[in-house]
Amino acid sequence: MLCTGCGLENPQGKKFCTQCGTPFSKLCPKCGAENQPLSRFCGDCGTVQIETPATPAGDAASIQKHRTQGERRHLTVMFCDLVGSTEIAHKLDPEEWRDLVASYQRAASTAIERFDGHVAKYLGDGVMAYFGYPREPIHLHRALRASGTTGRFKAATARGLTPFVGRGDEVRMLMNRWERVREGEGQVILISGEAGIGKSRLVEQFHAQLTGTPHTWIECSSAPDFQNTPFYSVVDMIAQRFAWRSDEPPEVKLEQLERSLERSGSKLTEAIPLIASLLNLPLPDKYPPSTISAEQRRKRLLATLSAWVFGTAKVQPTVIVLEDLHWVDLRPLSFCGYRRNKARRRRRCCCFTPRARNSMHLGRCERITHRSR
User: Fold this and answer.
1) DSSP-derived pairing of the beta strands 117-123 and 76-81
2) Inside any domain, residue 141
3) What's the domain range around 14?
4) How far apart are CA 373 and CA 370, in angstroms?
5) Could you say which of 148, 170, 330, 356 has the lowest number of CB atoms within 10 Å?
6) Number of domains composing the chain
7) For the chain, what is the largest distance between any 2 Cα atoms, rounded to a whole number of angstroms?
8) What is the C-alpha separation between 120 and 103, in angstroms, rounded?
9) pLDDT digits (tens, 9 = 90+) for 137-153
10) Is residue 354 over pLDDT 80?
11) What does DSSP assign to residue 150?
């Protein structure tokens, strides 16, 4: 038996290829009849058959490797099919039924992909789709040299910036809000605009204006590949705060965390186990492991992060910058105190940069709509 996936000649009577695992037959999802692997329609009832993509031999080891690895993600699985498909199939000729199902599947696939979904498989006249599942692999490349920059904007402008002109009103507004922060009135600033319009450059200019003024600057950005990864922005924010290298020893990270949390007034025996777990850091024996439920741990983690931020703001005014807010789940970021009624009397400024078409409910905040001129 010749495998349609890898071309290997297999002994007669086998049900799967011994090289790549491709099945030699498939059952009709409607009537259960056995059909050839490449059959597009069932030979008994005419139902469109499931498309079973062949697995190249070279990918078998890679697939097995990835099966042993895991990542926690929010995943939505959706299944939809044609209502009354059995009655419709009996009324139509096989060719008409085929065209109808194909047209339905194309329409469903277009709608699913428009919302960043992934069509997992076609089941007869049904479609199974995943949302939150990456459709394309992330291609990694070896860096030729370290640039010392983080974020898309800083990496793109590492060789220098053009003169900053024409945004005087926006800069003055930002500095006015900064003065309010220094006086103890927390601020939330939303800088919105289309991609490439200059939101990050305005934030960078704001940062430059604070040179020489005591403050804590915490900055991070998100990306579409991580919008369904819980707490990704929080982890990145912590790493940026301490300027950790990729090869930073865990002991150094824990030591820096302890010093920072202690200065903010946090109780180390409660805070370190929660944050160390978030950062995948080994927990020293002096800290008791957490025994509470996952939901309780999440609530305590948010409370701990909130106390950490506000404790830092007591030491000196703090600016929290989150770029590309449109790719972030806001629920884990409630610790920033972006709702002003919860942290109005704090020396803390939250500065967010979403794209203009993304509307988000952040409570009362100062909004800067960034447009081209």
Assistant:
1) unpaired
2) no
3) 1-45
4) 9
5) 148
6) 3
7) 83
8) 18
9) 544 445 444 444 455 55
10) yes
11) -
- Cα 134 from Cα 139, distance rounded (Å): 12
Residue 27 is assigned to a structural domain of this protein: yes
Helices (H), the chain: 57-67, 85-91, 94-114, 152-156, 168-182, 199-209, 232-242, 250-263, 268-278, 294-315
Which two three-digit tokens encode residue 167? 């945004």
**Does 93 share its domain with 185?**
no
Q: Are residues 186 and 223 in the same domain?
A: yes
Give the bridge partners for 45, in sequence order. none
Q: Which residue has the higher pLDDT, 195 or 341?
A: 195
Any bridge partners for residue 34, and if so which? Answer: 27
Helix (H, G, I), strand (E, B) or coil at 31: coil
Give residue 5's pLDDT band: very low, low, confident or very high (50, 70, 90): low
Residue with tokens 């926006």: 170
Q: Please check whether residue 177 lies inside any domain of the structure.
A: yes
Residue with tokens 């409370």: 303
Instruction: Give residue 125's pLDDT.
Output: 83
Coil, strand or helix at 320: strand
Record the tokens describing residue 17, joined without a space.
Answer: 């290829």
- The letter for the amino acid at 1 is M
CB atoms within 10 A of CB 41: 17
Residues 6+ apart with CB under 8 A from 342: none
Residues 12/14/16/19 CA torsion (nearest 10 deg): -60
Cα dihedral: 120, 124, 127, 130 (round 10): -30
Contact 166, 115 (CB under 8 A): no
What CATH number does the domain containing 116 carry?
3.30.70.1230
Least Cα distance to 261 among 196, 308, 216 occurs for 308
Q: Are 1 and 51 in contact (CB under 8 A)?
A: no
Kindly report, residue by residue over 240-293, the tens digit of the pLDDT. Answer: 888 888 889 999 999 999 999 998 888 899 899 999 988 989 888 888 877 888
